[in-house]
Amino acid sequence: xxxxxxxxxxxxxxxxxxVHQLREMISKDGLKPGDKIPSERELSERxxxxxxxxxxxxxxxxxxxLIETKRGEGTFLRDFRDHHLIDLLGMFILEDHxxxxxILYTKMMIEKEALKDLFSEKKKMDALFKKVSEAENLDDVFxxxxxxxxxxxxxxxxxxxxDFETLICGEIKITERMREEITRMLQGIENQxxxxxxxxxxxxxxxxxxxxxxxxxFF
Length: 219
Description:
Blueprint: H1 2-28, H2 40-47, H3 51-63, E1 67-70, E2 74-77, H4 85-94, H5 97-117, H6 125-134, H7 138-147, H8 152-169, H9 176-190, H10 194-209
Antiparallel strand pairs: 1-2
C-alpha cells in the first residue's frame, strides 16, 4: 500500500500549493463569506496553473465546506473563520503520509466487511456482475458493494474517505485485468469461497498499488 500512498502524496503536491495560493488570494482581495470568487478560468490565469489543477483545488475546498457552488451563479466563499480547515487540509491530509495511509486502510476495511456481508446476499450478485461489466472507475463498483451493506454509518464513512482519495489521487480507471479479478472475486462469493474472495480483492488492490505490500489482514 505504500506505493499507492506515495502516489497520493505526489499527486497532492501538484495542487496543495494552489490551495495555499487561493487562501492568499482570498486574503489579498479582501473576500468575505458570501462573496463570489473568480471563475475557474480566471483563477487559472491569475495563478498561472492549469485549469484541471485549479478544479482539483476547488473540489478540495468545497469538500471541506470552505466554498460552495451555486448552479448558474458561480462559486462563493463560506464562513470558515472558526474552523481553520485549510490548515487542517494541508497538515492532516495532503502533507501527512500517515493520514493518507489511514484513509486507504480504513476504506479497505469497510470494503472487506461489505464483501463479507455479500455472502448472505447472493440475490444481489446479478446487479454487481452487470456493474463490473459496465463500470469505468473502480469506485463505481465498490460504491455499489458498500451500499448493499446494511451498516449506514459505514456507507457514509466510505463515501467521505472515497471523496478524499479521489481528490488526492484522482479517479482510478478499471483496466481489463482489474475487471477480470473483480469478476472472479464475485464468483467466489457466489461459490461461498472466502479464500478466493480475499485473494482476488487483494489482487485488485495490488494492481492499483503496483506493489505487493498490502496488509495481509483480510478476513
